[in-house]
Amino acid sequence: MAKNSVALGAAYEALVVRYLIANGLAIIATNYRCRFGEIDIIASSPDSLIFIEVKYRTANTFGLPEDYLTAAKQRKLIKAAHHFLCENREYQNQPLRFDVIANKNSEIIWIKNAIDCESSWI
């Protein structure tokens, strides 16, 4: 990934964090990394712990950003979430949700429950 792309992605993630806070979520972690992968944002709402994948594309030439959440990427996210929960037991009894936040024509699109954790859980 080019240096400009990394900077643009980081700026977009910072924008998304502000958007989530403005929408009532508390940010627990950003760019959580473990041996299974990375979770862009981990947040909580009054009723859920939310693992968020941020997708940013400058153009939709190769498909929409939300289309880039492949089955393999979903498995990595779920394994990374499991790792987070093992390290942070205080969150283990909360309902879980996996969301995707993408840009579409400079608009933030928030796709809640993008991954069905009931059928996908390890």
From TrEMBL:
<comment type="similarity">
    <text>Belongs to the UPF0102 family.</text>
</comment>
<keyword id="KW-0540">Nuclease</keyword>
<dbReference type="Pfam" id="PF02021">
    <property type="entry name" value="UPF0102"/>
</dbReference>
<keyword id="KW-0378">Hydrolase</keyword>
<dbReference type="InterPro" id="IPR011335">
    <property type="entry name" value="Restrct_endonuc-II-like"/>
</dbReference>
<dbReference type="InterPro" id="IPR011856">
    <property type="entry name" value="tRNA_endonuc-like_dom_sf"/>
</dbReference>
<dbReference type="GO" id="GO:0004519">
    <property type="term" value="F:endonuclease activity"/>
</dbReference>
<keyword id="KW-0255">Endonuclease</keyword>
<protein>
    <recommendedName>
        <fullName>UPF0102 protein DFR27_1270</fullName>
    </recommendedName>
</protein>
<dbReference type="InterPro" id="IPR003509">
    <property type="entry name" value="UPF0102_YraN-like"/>
</dbReference>
<dbReference type="GO" id="GO:0003676">
    <property type="term" value="F:nucleic acid binding"/>
</dbReference>
